[in-house]
């Protein structure tokens, strides 16, 4: 029933952002996912983050693969560019689009099946190349769309709805992203909007490969007592290392943190990430420490969340390749043709 359209009427009391848009202007079609699916909460957090950051919807390109998670770009940012790729192929299409037009903000949305199984090679290379993007995996530990088979992120010893045990070793996409050189790495939980919205805002303000793994329970197939991706399990085992707020260069934001030790990280665009430490010893600028902590806590069955790593000075694929600033479709013959004299020099150099 994806033909369902939301009423365009805006209540006059709805607040506007600096562009004059209400939150409704960032919504998409009515979701057709199961009621209570974590993925819908992530869509709501993306809407909130883009609205709060005053991002014009037409400046966003949202790309996805196949799965319930990959359907979600239809349910947010209805005025943005969108491309739904073949299963697991979102990262390469996003890479190509980003190279062709660096003016847009690239938001890749994927699932644990889409990224950790069929698309694992694509995930690895997009991260390793430092594509300037926000890459969100909506991680429920199962292939929701095809009725709940274990995915590669399902924990060893966790059980399916019918009681079958998963004996395979899980892939941890956060640890992989850290090892592959992602410059902004976070883990969130769809049931914690207060934590998730700032994590997405920080990622949208970041230049380089930003990766977010969001635990997102599948209420139809993976929300039972033997699951480690259920609402109950994640609430009980969630170990948040910090609380983030994003301060834009133009506006002071009131932060409702309790007093405590804080770290401030300034990003390329002048925005400041303010992190209040919940784990006093944790420094999100130390990649190795992040990998160690995740492994230690994982061995204890805990789910570490928060902004796990950030390198605000990291480069991106455009910097590595020295690409032009202008979108390729705006270049004319004068920029594209080197001219007879230059061609002559190149040819002479090869003789
Ligand atoms: C090439 C190909 N192989 C297999 C499928 C079947 N298929 C559709 S979605 C999916 C997995 C989706 O799992 P995930 O990415 O975790 O998304 P979720 O539905 O859990 O959000 C599979 C295997 C397909 N559509 N295309
Ligand atoms: S099957 Fe699972 S992942 Fe898919 S919409 Fe339903 S609850 Fe969400
Ligand atoms: Mg899944």
UniProtKB/TrEMBL annotation:
Query: InterPro entries per the record?
Result: 2-oxoacid:Fd_oxidoreductase, THDP-binding, TPP_enzyme_TPP-bd
Pfam families recorded: TPP_enzyme_C
Q: Which parts of the chain span the membrane according to its record?
A: none
Please provide the record's keywords in A-Z order: Oxidoreductase
Superkingdom of the source species: Bacteria
Keyword Oxidoreductase among record annotations: yes
* CDD domains in UniProt: TPP_OGFOR
Indicate the segments forming the Thiamine pyrophosphate enzyme TPP-binding domain, all copies: 66-214
Q: What is this protein called?
A: 2-oxoacid:ferredoxin oxidoreductase subunit beta
